[in-house]
Amino acid sequence: MNFHFPKEERLKSQKAIKALFLNGKTLVKYPVKVYYIPQSELKTSKATFAVPKKNFKHAVTRNRIKRQMREAYRLHKHMLTVNNGSNFALLFLYINKEMPQYEQLQSSICSLLKKLDHEAS
Fold first, then answer.
1. Which of 1, 58, 63, 97 has a CA 20 to 30 Å removed from the CA of 121?
2. DSSP-assigned letter for residue 13
3. CA neighbours within 13 Å on the CB side: how many for 93?
4. What is the value of pTM for the model shown?
5. Does residue 46 lie in a domain region?
6. In whole angstroms, what is the distance from residue 32 CA to residue 106 CA?
7. CATH code of the domain in which 89 resides
8. What is the pLDDT of residues 43-66, one digit of tens each?
9. Does 29 reside within a domain?
């Protein structure tokens, strides 16, 4: 199993991120919300992570939460198997106002990936 999260799997395009917010479907498992768009032309699913500045004023705390969400995704992305060549553009958004426990983030992202896998098939 490949537990890497290389550059090719990171969603960085501002145009794609804007499209996720405008046209993307959502799933929620508190405290994480995921926006997604199926994209068959992608080789692999691409993901990005966001924490609102409104809820966390200090960049240090926002970066820590994003780092924890990336780690949880990296360890569980294998649950999002390739279904009929369908891959996704994903944006994980942290929606709570308090600092999370890593286990809580991990379970939320894990269950969101399972839901997403079932919706894709």
1. 1
2. -
3. 18
4. 0.94
5. yes
6. 10
7. 3.30.230.10
8. 889 999 999 999 999 999 999 999
9. yes
